[in-house]
Fold this protein.
Amino acid sequence: VQLQASGGGLVQAGGSLRLSCAAPRSIFSRVDMGWYRQVPGHQRELVATITTAGNSYYADSVEGRSTISRDNAKNTVYLQMNSLKPEDTAVYYCRAWSIRTGIIWGQGTQVTVSS
């Protein structure tokens, strides 16, 4: 099972990016999805999650600036990030989880915010 993340890039502070993560159709509707990020030398940290029912949760660091959403028809979860700050610079990973599948990580996508 593979998750395909995309949408990272270089953006100036104050700008926006939308990350996308596609999951296999066979599992998508049955897994909670989330975005995490990691800076070299630091632990991977939660950014936002969304359940199969559409309930979302955000880390304090991105609350009010980010929106996680899922499109079950496209088997894709999105993370819209606005008002980006240099401290948002990290590799962003998507994650799928359910009791049946366990944790599945996607490959990372680099987000770099210049000051």
The first helix runs from residue 25 to 28. The mean pLDDT is 96.
